[in-house]
Design brief:
Number of strands: 2
Helix content: 55-70%
Number of helices: 14
Radius of gyration: 19 Å
Strand content: under 5%
Length: 314
């Protein structure tokens, strides 16, 4: 292949990358995403976390797309958390709005200045104080409840870490995984959660401790059906989204399948689904990393921390 022909091919690929990246970024970050990204990544000031530390590595990776879907599925199993989402934000009418807010929250607290990060946490805590309601049995729930915040946090961090371990670009050793859990816990504590895990082993223990509280409710199963089978996406985007969903479902614990009525994937799911998931996250990582950004610090400004979680965060 001649030099000119090779340059033409590279130009086409870069054009495809740009269009894919812009489409994905707008879906995740919203129409004001570029301005928010510049403010978060390029504002001067100290950060809560050093560039290249485990939390910036995990939250800046394309595996967050898989981890975010898994986090949403896991979080629906807590009746109080699911009812709070169902009654106060809904998963149908404002799915993309919640995704934009959650993306911005994670990006700001992970990569933004300490001042911006604290301001974002303060705003979310104020929102939490207004999210209250009554369970069917007459008991009450509140988004500011430290125990409920702990559940949302544990489900997210477990999902993000598992997705990164399987689909992340560079593996974290045990010390790195423990540091990630501890760093993510710092943000959860600032939000008002208590007793958050600080190591991967403690994270596993926390997930197990919540098991007696978890069950599949009608609201949870409706949310799962909507997100798995009727996502508000244009037709061309549904096939790659389906691959990410399959990858997320493949990472779900076996005991969650029945209460959530999750589809049973083929026996070969651990091979076929993993290959497809790896290809999908690799494509997203490629599309959302501008050619000139390869030499920049991790997380700036590639994948804009994009988990579609139902977040009590906002």
């Amino acid at each position: 292949m001649g030099v000119r022909r090779l340059e033409d091919v590279v130009g086409v690929l870069n054009g495809v990358r740009g269009r894919l990246g812009e489409m994905l970024f707008e879906r995740v970050a919203g129409p004001e995403g570029p301005a928010k990204r510049d403010r978060i990544h390029y504002s001067d000031g100290p950060r809560w976390f050093e560039p290249g530390s485990p939390i910036t590595v995990v939250h800046g990776d394309a595996s967050m797309f898989v981890g975010g879907i898994r986090a949403l599925l896991v979080q629906t199993l807590h009746p109080a958390a699911m009812l709070a989402v169902h009654e106060h934000s809904g998963f149908r009418g404002d799915m993309w709005g919640r995704l934009h807010r959650t993306s911005e929250f994670l990006a700001t607290t992970t990569f933004g200045t300490a001042e911006d990060a604290q301001r974002t946490v303060d705003i979310v805590r104020a929102i939490h104080r207004r999210v209250t309601g009554t369970m069917p049995d007459g008991s009450t729930y509140a988004a500011s409840d430290p125990h409920l915040l702990r559940w949302v946090h544990v489900a997210e961090v477990d999902s993000f870490l598992r997705a990164y371990t399987v689909y992340g670009k560079n593996a974290l050793d045990q010390a790195g995984r423990d540091t990630y859990v501890a760093q993510a816990g710092e943000v959860a504590t600032r939000l008002g959660a208590t007793g958050v895990p600080t190591t991967e082993a403690e994270l596993d223990e926390a997930m197990a401790a919540f098991r007696p509280e978890l069950r599949g409710t009608p609201e949870a199963r409706e949310a799962v059906r909507f997100l798995l089978f009727r996502p508000p996406l244009p037709l061309p985007a549904r096939a790659p989204y389906g691959v990410l969903v399959a990858a997320a479902v493949g990472l779900m614990p076996a005991w969650t399948r029945l209460p959530l009525r999750l589809p049973w994937l083929p026996v070969t799911e651990r091979t076929v689904v993993r290959v497809l998931g790896t290809a999908a996250t690799g494509t997203i990582r490629w599309a959302m990393t501008p050619p000139e950004a390869h030499a920049e610090a991790p997380g700036a400004p590639g994948v804009p921390t994009a988990p579609p979680v139902p977040a009590v965060e906002g």
